[in-house]
Every structure is written in structure tokens, then in C-alpha cells.
Amino acid sequence: MSQPPSVQHTSPEGVPPSEVPAAATAAAESAAAEGGAEGTSKSAQKKAAKLAEKQAKAAAKNALKAEKAPASAGASSGAPKKEKVKKETKEEPAWTDPTKPGEQKDLSAPMESGYNPLHVESSWYAWWEKKGFFTPKPPSDAAPYDPAKTFVIPLPPPNVTGLLHIGHALTISIQDALIRFYRMKGYRTLYVPGFDHAGISTQTVVEKRLAKVEQKSRYDYGREAFLQKVFDWKDEYQARISNQMRRLGASFDFTREAFTMDASLSEAVTENFCKLFEDGILYRENRLVNWCVYLNTTLSNLEVVQKTIPGRTLMNVPGYPPNERIEFGVIVSFVYPVVGSDDKIIVATTRPETILGDTAVAVHPDDERYKHLHGKLLQHPFIAERHIPVVTDSVAVDMAFGTGAVKITPAHDPNDYDVGKRHNLPFINILNDDGTLNANAGEFKGMKRFSARRAVVDALKAKGLYVETKDNPMVVPVCERSGDVIEPVMKPQWWVNCQPLAKAAVEKVRQEDMAIEPPQSKREFFRWMENIQDWCVSRQLWWGHRVPAYFVDMEGVEQDASEGRWWVVGRTREQADERAAKMANGRAYELKQDEDVLDTWFSSGLWPFSTLGWPRANTDDMKYYYPTSMLETGWDILFFWVARMIMLGVYHTGQLPFKEVFCHAMVRDAHGRKMSKSLGNVIDPIDVIEGISLEGLQQRLREGNLDEKEINKAAQGQKKDYPRGIPQCGTDALRFTLCAYTAAGRDINLDIMRVEGYRKFCNKLWNATRFALLKLQDGYTPLPLAEQDAFVPQSLVEKWILYRLNATAKQLDHDMQQRSFMSATSCVYNFWLYDLCDVYIEAIKPITDAGAEPAARLSAQHTLYACLDAGLKLLHPFMPFVTEELWHRLPVRPQETCETIAHTRFPPWNPTHDFAAEAAQFDDVFASVRAVRALAADYGLTSKIQAFVEVQNAESRHVLSTQCSVMHTLIKGCESIVCVSQASEVPAGCVVASVSATIQVHLLVSGLVDFDQELSKLAKKLTLNETQLQRTVALTQKPDWSKTPEDVRASTNQRLDDLEAEKAALLKAQANFESLRSSS
């Protein structure tokens, strides 16, 4: 973007007074003085500093009021006040939308005087959907299939747990901007909508709702009745989410709407399970799993949050009363006596209850302290009949750590599990599924796990085996869904061996150089894939895809259901029965389907191709739209979802499921905090679109599943962040804001006020178009598109604006291709606001009036129409509603075939409009305008402005001379503007500002400014400035200054810098006025 040269003032600048009263400085002095006093709190000092600041602002405001009061106020105080004439406001009729549902919007009424987003957004989506604008047309002879001109994005399916939040709105805003961009570029586009059943999350939220509303659990209903409750929830929220998607303007093909538990997608899940099993990649084994007691299910490692504890910490755990906090972050040492000897071994544990499952103590084979105990037996402290061996293990034991001896609990610790396997130790499970201790725990049977923790320590003390308890920094595994502390337990589960899948996926990603942005996400992807672990895919839930595996229970055969060899899988019950009969080999058997369901990610990992018809062979959707073009999602599910889609896509289809991955940032609140219902900062996009009161926000909290304590905490957060609620902003402003914030990998701290700022931009857009349409009346007919492309305008400002339009189109195209959404929104915003509205529309007012020269007027109209038409198209990917409405209000272009702006051509770069030289010339013109405006503002001139543009270069002077009328129009209150060749042609009594090395602007101030009055004002300001400077410097020189709070010191130093800068500007202004007075 070419920018006008910077303006360098050599004349005095208007300096806003910083008139801080003595009281304010005294308050600051008090704060500094108290900083060294004993017993004075920092908060008291901060309050004093704030008081000083408040008083300073009040004084400055009063000083300005006094300065503006007329000098003759005292003399004329007795005169009656002139009554202010109230401006009549014309009331607009109440707005109604006469459009029939599904029909094109009725725009026969005049445009409203201001932008109302809800009025503008009304009716458009129903028409788009009814017309099928977003359903791609199948390939034909006229429009054959071209993979290079096909763009497909599968929406990451939102969970049906609840409504969409701002994070979803970000995803949709980015994706739909790309879909609309590529559609306008002539691509065949497909944006696939859908929903995820979200097994654990949805079951949990429905269970909480039933408990809160009906005081019932899922067990009160039974499996089938409970599942019906979940389906009812799913139907309600799927409908509500679909409405949110439409309100967000997303150009989804809703004819392809999918749900992960639809029949066709469930068929894909069954095929996935069966094929993996048949290929030996999926297997059943009794292994250590992450067990969530609260949810009563296993979890994958990715669903477990590792919470760091710095030392002794008391935590609330689900299932325990709020006042019963559990101790973590300590390590307990105790004694294991050696059987038949006085010897003993001291070991330590952070989980004393697991002593009940110990089956060995390990030492390092080279540790001299314990060599005489190798192979000896130790007496278990609580289970009399259990003697446990001392084993040697160089992998598990670090001689230098602690006592060099480690207790081994193979059934309840991942590291101990490996030791147990290496030494063939017994695996003793001490936990029931509900978190109570089982019969293996002896006297502690039936106790809750953390109650047993305290009881075990007390019992060790009673037996004289306790040594000590010390603080111990540690990591506690916590369920990301429930917040429960995870227990490692032995469970027979279904597992996927991920190594072969990951190896093939990584090879394919490297081979095809798949783009993953930002680069750090790509590095993380490879690191995770290269260290991937087996994936536990079964869950002990009711909601989800039931495992398509069957236990073949044969008569007369001793079987262990935890062993995979007694199981068959089947795409249908018939196939499973056929395989079971073959296994039974003539014996009687019963086929029992596994009660478990599959991990949610096992189904959503198929999303890019299951939504396109896989595993059915040769579907048109798979043929034309797979692989998809792009996966755009949050970086936080890179491993949960993206990696699994790549692994399963390569495994099942032999292709990467998408050509690129773009990981957008996490949306946080304005304070940088993660969105959380309990903080009250989770925002429904509809509330931003429509606006909502604080009371409305807080009512939403009461309708949710939060408990009373969480509701109160969230309500306080809302009151602080949204004291007046959320203003109505509209979809277009919300989408534009979210895209404007987006840079790959960078977290977004969303300030709702910024959305309101872009709503004002929409209002500017609306009013500018409304005004411009007045210039396109009286039978104006636009040029056909081909003629518009070849059109060469008459005036310099027209060539400049078409050059700016051309440059914006080129920049925006590049930015969208590069996924630089922040730059893309910035360039189109700048074009509309600073080029089109602030310059061109203002500049052409005289030449588009009815009395203007016809040819010049028509040229300006064609250029104006081209800018409005193309400008709306450039904005359309981000702001679909307002651009559709305004585009339909433009005069219809001859030969226009597109019914919607969404199908129009995205403005290409046009070499005919590459007016670079002319644009540079107009940049000088506008730089001169800005310089005159700045001088006029400095001297308080709003009328009778007489300016002279001194241009040394003859060619440049000729150009600027021809633009005097444009400059006159763009300078408000301008009486005259003249181009001259040298300073001697400028009358005396002018001030000057430098535009460039060859251009100066002069402003006549003699006779318009009272020099004595201005100098008197400046003298007062300088006196006040000097007083403030002395007092502020004195503050910093006090003996106790170093003890003053850091923020007070920083504020005072900043104040000092500001006062110094103010003094310099005041002195400069004083010298210039004295010079002018003496020469006048």
C-alpha cells in the first residue's frame, strides 16, 4: 500500500494543557512520602496515587472550560441566555420485514437512516438455503470436475453437549470466509456441516441435568430409557446449534448435514473397528488404564490433565464433601520388615493406600546396601499372609534417589506395571469401580480410596512402621471432564496398536509435504506421532457406538473374557454369529455383545470421509470431494482429532484426508483467561449478535448445570466484565472481528468492545453506500463487467481510487491464499474507511452533482459504482449479510447473471487500472491536504482557511495546480488554496509545514489569530508547567523514593517525561508566535 509522505510540522502545535492542581501533586507527594513510612501499606500508596490522578484530570477539565469561556462573559453576565433551538428529528416508521419465508428479501422500502444488524440479516439465509446456493453443482460437460478448482472444508463437528460458543464462531468465521472466497474465485466448494455425539461429555451433561431437575440417575431409568433421554437432548441441541450456524451466515450445504451416530456414519465406525481387528491392529487385553471413578469409565491419555502440585496441597475431589479436602503433594516413608530377620527396608509413597496392592520392593542390582537382601521376602504390614520379594531392577530404581528402594504396585502404577511384567509379579487390584477398596485390601475393605489413605498412615503409625511425611512436588492426573483424580487400574479393554498407523501417516505427510500451520504445530505433530502409545478405544458408557465385538460363551470350555481369543467381531450380528459358530466348532455357545461403547474420537477420526459416503464404494462425493482441501481447527485438538484423522484416513483410503491443516488460536477473554462457564466468560455468539442485558446473561447461568457456588462466582465475573450487558453488534461485525484477531498459533484475547467497534464500521459502510446511491440516480446505468474492466477514468482522484481498489484486491487475494486473516481484514477495512469514504466519496461531491459537466460526472459515477461493487465483493467473505443487502441495492449491472453476491466474481487484479504513477501524484495531493488540515487544527481555524502549496518542481506543481478544486473540497472551511513555486509568493503572516523535500504548505494566520491572546495563554501554561515540573522532580529526589511502590514510580516518571515534552512544544509555539507578531 503506497502511503502519502509523512507531514513534518515546523509551525507550533496545539498542545493540550496538562494542568494538574497543587492538591493532586500533594497527593502524589504524600504517596511517595508514605512509601518509606513504617506500617504503611502499598494499597494506601496506590490509592493516593489514584486520587492524585483523578484530581489532575478534574482540574485539567476545569481549566479547559475556563479557557474556552469568552473574555466578555463578566460584562455580559446580565444578558438573557439565548435559548437553544432544538433540532427536529424525523421519526422513522417502525421496521417490518415483508419478505415471505424463503423468498428473496423485499428491499422496496427506502434504506433506513442507520445500520441495524438484525434488520439487515433478516430473511437472507432462508433464501440462500432455499435456492441451494451452497450446494455444489455436480460436474457436467459445461463444468467438468477439476480437482485444482475444488475446495472442501469439513466442519469440525461441534458437540451436542450445549450451544456454540465464541470459539466455534471463530472456527466458522475463518472457514466460511475461505469457502466464500474460493466460491467467488470460481471453485466448486463444499462446506460440510455436522455434529458429534461426544460420548462422555454428552452423557455427563444429561446425567447432571437429570440429577438437578429430577433427582434421578441413569440407573433409575435403565439403558434404553436413558438413551432416549440423551437422544431428546441431542435433538434439541442439534436444532439450536443448526440455528446458530445459520445466524452466523455459514454457507454450509445443509443437504449433507451429518451426525456421528447417523446410520451411515455408524456403519463407517463398525467397518473401522472390524477392519482394524481383522488386520491385527486392534486387540483386547487386560492392561493398566486411566480410570475415572466419578464417570465410571476408562479414558485415553489425552483425556487426562496432568496437574502440577508444588508441595502439600489440600484439594476437593468429586464424590467427597466440599469440607473434606484430600491431601496431595506429600511423600510418606515407612518400613518393610524382612521376614525372619531384624533387617528392614525403608520405602516411600505419595499414595499410601496403594501399599495394600504392593507385590514387591525393587532395589538396584549394584546397590551395596541391599545386596544381602536380594531375593529375600518382606512382611506386608497389613496382609499377614502376603510376603513380598525384594527384586533387582536397574530400570525402575535410581540408587541416588531416596533410600534407593522402591515399593512396586503393578496393578495401580504405570511404571510398576512394567516392573511387574519384567519380574512376573502378581497384579493385585485393590479398587472397585466406584473407588472403594475391595477384599484384597484386608481390614480396609469398603473404605473410599482417599479415606483409606489417611487410615493406612494412621495404621502404620500404630504398628510402629511409620517413618515420616515430607512435602513432595508432584503431578496429579485429573479427568479433564469431571475433575476427578484418575486411578491407574487393570481392566480388559479394546486397544489400537498405533505404531503402524502412525508410521504410515508420518511417511505420507512427509512424502506429500502436507502443510501444518503454524510451524510449531507441525513439529509437535511429528514428535507426538513418533512417540505414540497404544490407544484404549473402549469406554464404560451407555451413550455412543456400541463395540461391535461379541464374546463367544461356549459350553464346557473354561474361558477368560479378558482374553481377545474368545471374541469375534462383526459388521452385522449375522456375520458375528457365523464367525462364532466357526470358533465353537460344533459346541453350543451364546453370543454376548460387549456392553461398552467406543471412544468418541474413534468415530470423529473418520469424519472427513465418513461424511462423504465411506465405506460405500465409488460414491460421487468420495470421488469429487475427497481428499478435502483443508482442516481448520484449534491447536488444542491436534492430537485428539487431527492426528487420528490422518492415521485412519491413510489406513482406510490410502490418502491424506486433507491437503493442509491450519491451527487457529484459542479464544480467551479480554483478561487472557480461558473460557470457562464457572468464570462466567463463555459467550454465546447470538448474545453478541443480538445483544443481551446483564440480567439476561445471569439468567442463562441459572438455566445451566452449575451449582449455586459456581453460579455466584460466574455472576460476579459477568458483572465485572459486562456491567451493562453485551451491546447488539450483529453477525458481520462479530465475524470480521474474529478474523481480524486471527494469526496462526496466537491466542486471542477477545474484547467485546472491539466487536462493537466493527459494528460502527458496518454503520459507516451503510451510510457511505446510502449517500453514494444518491449520486447514482437519475437513470444511471453501470457499465457491463467487461467494459468496466477496460474503463479508464478522467480525473486523477478516480485513477488513484481505482489503483487503491486494484492494490486492495491483489493484497486480499494474496492474504487469503496465505491464510493471513489479520492482514486481509486490515487491508479491506483500510480501503473502505480511509480511501473510499474519507477521500474519494468526499472528493467527488462537486463533480457528481446534477449541475456538473456530464462527461466528468459520468466518469466519476462509473468509478464510484466500480468501487462500491468491488468493495462489497472484497468484504463479502467476512461480512456476508450487509454486503448481500447493499449489493442488491446497487443499480443492476447490465448482463448480470448472478442472483447473489456469493456467486459473483471475486475482483481480480486489473492491469488496466495499475495507475501507479497517477496514484503517487495524488498521494502528494492528499499529503498536502493533511498538512493544511493539521495546521488549521493547531491554530483553531475552522473557517476562512487560506492555504498556499509551495511546489519547487514544475511538473509536480502542474499536477497539484490541477487538483486545487479537489484539495479545496477535502479541506473543511477552506476559502482558497493556491499553488506557488517559491516561498516569496506566499504572503506574510503564514505558518508553514513540510510535506516533503519539495513541497511545503503555508497557512495564513495573520488577522485570524490574536497573537497577544495566544501568547498570554502560552505564558500561563508555561508557568503551570514549570510548577508541575519542579514538584514532580522533587518527588523523585526524596530520600524514601526507592521505597515507593513500583507502579507509582513508573507513573511519576511517565508524568515527568510528558511535562518535559509539553514544555518543549510550548516554548516552540511561543517563539513562533513572537516572530509572527513582530513581523505583522
From TrEMBL:
Coiled-coil segments on the chain, per record: 1049-1076
Residue ranges of the region described as Disordered: 1-113
Localization of this protein: Cytoplasm; Mitochondrion
Record-linked Pfam families: Anticodon_1, tRNA-synt_1
One Gene Ontology CC term in the entry: cytosol
Molecular functions (GO terms): aminoacyl-tRNA deacylase activity; ATP binding; valine-tRNA ligase activity
Residue ranges, compositional bias (Low complexity): 22-43, 57-79
Basic and acidic residues bias locations: 80-93
Record's catalysed reaction(s): tRNA(Val) + L-valine + ATP = L-valyl-tRNA(Val) + AMP + diphosphate
GO biological process: valyl-tRNA aminoacylation
Main location: cytoplasm
The family this protein is said to belong to: Belongs to the class-I aminoacyl-tRNA synthetase family.
UniProt name for this protein: Valine--tRNA ligase, mitochondrial
Lineage: Eukaryota, Fungi, Dikarya, Basidiomycota, Ustilaginomycotina
